Amino acid sequence: MKRAILLMLALSLTLAVPALAQDDAPVKGDKAFKTLDANGDGKVTKDEFMAAAQKRAAARWEKLDPTGKGFVTKEDLEGVRAKAREKAQARKAKKDAPAQ
């Protein structure tokens, strides 16, 4: 069971990261450590790290399979990537727009 979960996690991250990287602002530095350190003891255990990775993978899976059908097709992935590109283009256009 753990092996299947880890395989799904690796697969979802491999497929989803390029498509969704623009949607999720990276958590860096102290904030990242605090996010991983679930019990606040100043240490990140393997269990805490894996739980955070699984939670993030589950959130990404929800974006890939919003209807909850339990699988993702190539077309689904292409749709997610297209949406991510549209959002990135909209952000760029907003950023490049002249200030009023």
Automatic annotation (TrEMBL):
Pfam families tied to this protein: EF-hand_1
Keywords: Signal
Keyword Protease: no
Source species, domain of life: Bacteria
SUPFAM superfamilies (alphabetical): EF-hand
InterPro entries attached to this UniProt entry: EF-hand-dom_pair, EF_Hand_1_Ca_BS, EF_hand_dom
One MF term in the entry's GO annotations: calcium ion binding
Domain EF-hand: 24-59
Secretion signal, residue range per the UniProt entry: 1-21
Gene3D superfamilies: EF-hand
Protein name, per record: EF-hand domain-containing protein
Species in which this protein is naturally found: Fundidesulfovibrio magnetotacticus
